[in-house]
Amino acid sequence: MTRPSARRRSADPEEVRAAVLAIAGWLRQDNATSALEEPPKQQVAAAVRLTAQALAQAAPGASVEVRVPPLIAVQCIEGPRHTRGTPPNVMETDARTWLLLAAGRIDFQAAVDAGDISVSGTRAGEIVRWLPIVRL
Predict the structure, then answer these.
(1) Angle ∠(69,83,67) on CA atoms, nearest 5
(2) Please, are residues 66 and 55 in contact by the beta-carbon 8 Å criterion?
(3) Hey, which residues does 118 pair with through a beta bridge?
(4) 7: how many CB neighbours lie within 10 A of its CB?
(5) Residue 80: C-alpha distances to residues 17, 72, 88 (Å)
(6) Is 72 helix (H, G, I), strand (E, B) or coil?
(7) How far does Cα 78 stand from its chain's mean position?
(8) What are the strands of the beta sheet with 72-76, ordered from one edge?
(9) What structural domains does the chain harbor?
(10) Alpha carbon of 48 to those of 33, 35, 52, 81, 98: distances in Å?
(11) Cβ(130)–Cβ(108) under 8 Å?
(12) Most exposed residue of 11, 22, 84, 101, measured as fewest CB within 10 angstroms of its CB?
């Protein structure tokens, strides 16, 4: 299965914003105090893909890989390019956590400390420089 690449399609800022706003209610829900009402999977997938593509567009390069399985994996941030095996600098999370991060609703380090985001390598945390992508 081939994953969408940020280099194949640029992310239109208005389209990115519209995709995130379409699920804003879900992102604003506090999962600790209420049962989450998840939006349609297509809307979540579109928001994840577009925000990840926007990150890759804003921070071009291939030294860090951002993964939101099974939806997308993009490479970003200038530096040494990795081409074989598992990249040394990886940030991986689920769709909701990625969208909360992309929308400025959670703190990166707090999410890492809570185990909601997995990071490896010395450069994975550099993505915070380009966040949030769309502020709610």
Answers:
(1) 15
(2) yes
(3) 92
(4) 13
(5) 31, 21, 10
(6) strand
(7) 17
(8) 72-76, 64-68, 90-93, 117-120
(9) 13-30+39-130 (3.30.1050.40)
(10) 24, 21, 6, 24, 7
(11) no
(12) 84
Task: Spell out the residues 6+ positions from residue 5 whose beta carbon is closer than 8 angstroms to its own.
Answer: 74
Peptide bond into 4 cis (omega under 30): no
Tens place of pLDDT per residue across the chain (136 aa)? 334 443 446 889 999 999 999 999 999 987 665 667 889 999 999 999 999 999 999 999 989 999 999 999 999 999 876 666 677 899 999 999 999 999 999 999 999 999 999 999 999 999 999 999 999 8
Residue with tokens 């519209």: 18
- CA-based angle 35:36:37, to the nearest 5? 115
